Amino acid sequence: MTATIEISDLRRTFGAVTALDGIDLRITRGTTGLLGPNGAGKTTLLRILATATGADSGQVTVLGHDPRTSEGRLAIRRLLGFVPQEPGFHQRFSAFEFVDYIAILKEMTDRRTRHDEVRRVLTEVGLEGVMKKRIRWLSGGMRRRVALAQAILGHPELLVLDEPTAGLDPEQRLRFREIIGAIAEDNTVVLATHQTEDVAAICDRVVVIDQGRVFFEGTPDELAATATGMVWSSASHARDATVSWRTASGRYRVIGDRPSDGEAVEPTIEDAYLVMLGQRALATEGAA
Ligand SMILES: Nc1ncnc2c1ncn2[C@@H]1O[C@H](COP(=O)(O)OP(=O)(O)O)[C@@H](O)[C@H]1O
Ligand SMILES: [Mg+2]
């Protein structure tokens, strides 16, 4: 499949902190999840894709445009929907007024069609009943949905979502997944998360990033498979394992070397992610 986003040797530092340390990625249509712990560089990467900030060096092409040029940034912004990690709202605006205001910034000049579109996106995220309420009176989950609503105005070709499911309850999560899934059929969705369930439920492809580097790129199944032969079920706690915890069944799930009574179990995405982060931590300790 042709890439909609191409990134090569992307670097960005903040003072002494290296946020992106040479990222190479090809992203295609569908949903790509950036999975990584806090401080991995996910937000910095998404903000660069959304033209909210620039890189120090390296190349990025977003839907054929170069965000380093002002024409490129304008072209990208016209094709983009963006939910920042901490969206700022004008608290006195109603949900309708806020989304309408963003729609004006998105150059939707005809009032009637714009208002129809604002109602469409608010209904899409299940907020039709509270459109006229001030944002300051909405719950955290509702505010996240207002943020999603403004991002899907005008059917963007690229949707960039920074931790979009944070603060949503299970039912809202499900609705969110449906909305994203429908958009991703014809468009590119890139989202950041530190929750492996999001990756399993929403993403066609997953990129594990940590310390500004890509550690893995592939499908969620391929990610889970990287932990094959490393996950066990055991009657007791294994002290020298990378990770071991007691599960609801009363048995222990052990990641690492096989315990003497260990039975191999099918690894999940979460197991693989823990293995990957564990190996990274060991490598860092070794280097220190
Ligand atoms: N504006 C900034 N000023 C200083 N440091 C920053 C800034 N933005 C990000 N960083 C640092 O860059 C690293 C990556 O941050 P970020 O991209 O927010 O990661 P993530 O979204 O994966 O948690 C962190 O160490 C963070 O503290
Ligand atoms: Mg972040």
SSE inventory with pairings:
Blueprint: E1 5-14, E2 17-27, E3 30-35, H1 42-49, E4 57-62, H2 70-78, E5 80-83, H3 95-105, H4 111-124, H5 140-151, E6 158-162, H6 170-184, E7 188-193, H7 196-202, E8 205-210, E9 213-218, H8 220-225, E10 231-234, E11 243-246, E12 252-255, E13 263-264, H9 269-287
Parallel strand pairs: 3-7, 3-8, 5-6, 6-7
Antiparallel strand pairs: 1-2, 1-4, 8-9, 10-12, 10-13, 11-12
Helix pairs in contact: 3-4, 3-5, 4-5
Describe the fold and architecture.
The chain is of the alpha/beta class. The chain has 3 domains: 1-79 and 156-218, Rossmann fold; 87-154, no CATH class; 224-287, no CATH class. 35% of the residues lie in helices and 26% in strands. It has 9 helices and 13 strands. It has helices spanning 42-49, 70-78, 95-105, 111-124, 140-151, 170-184, 196-202, 220-225, 269-287; strands at 5-14, 17-27, 30-35, 57-62, 80-83, 158-162, 188-193, 205-210, 213-218, 231-234, 243-246, 252-255, 263-264. Strands 5-6-7-3-8-9 form a 6-stranded mixed sheet, sandwiched between helices. Strands 11-12-10-13 form a 4-stranded antiparallel sheet. Helix 3 (95-105) packs across helix 4 and helix 3 (95-105) runs parallel beside helix 5 (140-151). The protein is globular and about 70 Å long. The mean pLDDT is 91. Bound molecules: adenosine-5'-diphosphate (ADP) and magnesium ion (MG). The site of adenosine-5'-diphosphate has 11 residues, from strand 2 and helix 1.
